[in-house]
């Protein structure tokens, strides 16, 4: 392997690591109500669209940071404690853009009991771009709710 090919592979691995850091930081910010960090995970013109594929109902859709900031400001903060867990991400990097497919799980602590509850699960389809400041940000996040223990 040439030095150039090795450099490209290392750069791709670092991009993948940074992309996952953005997505994991998004989840931590959402769960602990860090509004500024959550909004900063998105580009200025980002789209966040969540649909319940079982019922066919759109859960919510935000376009642009202003709508995203309004959404997260109104998102319920703990308690009850929530955890957005992203698993099995498949990251594809193409220059300064990337796509990520992953599963997600939403866990909460049951009110009054302190026991864990699986609330919902589904899949994400994300598109990210590497910004001029070097940070990867979400330009499109599509969430598919595939099962929900509550009415959407």
From TrEMBL:
Domain SnoaL-like: 12-141
Gene3D superfamilies: 3.10.450.50
Protein name: Nuclear transport factor 2 family protein
Species of the source: Phytohabitans kaempferiae
The organism's taxonomic lineage, starting at the top: Bacteria, Bacillati, Actinomycetota, Actinomycetes, Micromonosporales
């Amino acid at each position: 392997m040439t030095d150039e090919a090795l450099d490209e592979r290392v750069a791709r691995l670092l991009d993948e690591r940074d992309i996952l850091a953005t997505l994991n930081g998004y989840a931590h910010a959402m769960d602990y109500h860090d509004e500024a960090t959550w909004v900063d995970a998105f580009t200025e013109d980002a789209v966040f669209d969540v649909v319940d594929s079982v019922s066919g109902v759109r859960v919510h859709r935000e376009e642009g940071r202003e709508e995203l900031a309004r959404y997260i400001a109104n998102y319920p903060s703990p308690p009850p404690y929530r955890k957005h867990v992203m698993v099995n991400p498949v990251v594809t990097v193409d220059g300064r853009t990337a796509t990520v497919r992953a599963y997600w799980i939403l866990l909460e602590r049951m009110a009054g009991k302190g026991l864990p509850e699986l609330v919902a699960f589904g899949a994400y389809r994300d598109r990210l771009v590497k910004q001029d400041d070097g940070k990867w940000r979400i330009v499109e996040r599509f969430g598919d709710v595939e099962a929900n223990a509550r009415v959407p």
